[in-house]
Amino acid sequence: MKAKRTKADRAQAIYSRRTLEWYDWWVLGFSNHRIWQCETEKILELYRAKLSPNHLEVGVGTGYFLEHGLSAAEPRLALLDRNRACLDHTARRLDAYRPRVHQADILEPLALEERRFDSIAINYLLHCLPGALEEKAGKVCDHLLPYLENDGVLFGSTILGKDIQRPFAAGLVMWIYNQKGFFSNSQDSLGGIMEVLSKRFKTFHVEVCGCVVLFWGKGLRGG
């Protein structure tokens, strides 16, 4: 557990107030297009299709997808992240929506004083978390599903380390990021995410786009 905590700390450390200023340019502008070969617009389409006016964002990044995906004038919006810099940056960006902010570790059980949400997003989160995909994604889902309406949708995307056609640049960058602890996805596979979704949702969908898998699940099993 201590080793996993150390990896999680390293993954979080890169998201400082300074680096968040150029995150949109580097990750959403350059990396998605040139390295991961999945256009940011593709992920934004997922948001526009699944984002509800009653939404929880987990692993908030910079708030780009919420800013460009929200259509409701007065949504009920909550943000959850372990990293205070990400929360502050995103809350400022989305100040007009008056989001509720929760600083918490998604790998630990949550204690949110919130009623359930109609949509929950875990976008570009899983590849940053330590551990096997089935384990970490399973924990994330199990900690979040108590806060999802029975007919609500959980959606997101993650960068895979296996089961993809990976160009040289993507393989090199992924290796570097894993060595530095920014990513922990060298064994993350399409089959792994499908297994997690199929065990928890009556209906789910996955779509591979370059090195990225976009996914959603709806209809809680046992709900």
Explain the overall architecture.
With 223 residues, the chain is of the alpha/beta class. The protein has one domain (2-220): Rossmann fold, CATH 3.40.50. 42% of the residues lie in helices and 23% in strands. The protein is built from eight helices and seven strands; from the N terminus they run αααβαβαββαβααββ. It is globular, with a radius of gyration of 16 Å.
What order do the helices and strands come in, and which of them pair?
Blueprint: H1 2-13, H2 17-35, H3 40-50, E1 54-58, H4 64-69, E2 76-81, H5 84-93, E3 100-103, E4 117-123, H6 133-144, E5 148-159, H7 168-180, H8 190-200, E6 201-209, E7 212-220
Parallel strand pairs: 1-2, 1-4, 2-3, 4-5
Antiparallel strand pairs: 5-7, 6-7
Question: What is the CATH topology classification name?
Answer: Rossmann fold
Radius of gyration: 16 Å
Give the percentage of residues in beta strands: 15-25%
* Mean pLDDT rating: 94
Largest sheet: 7 strands, mixed
Shape: globular
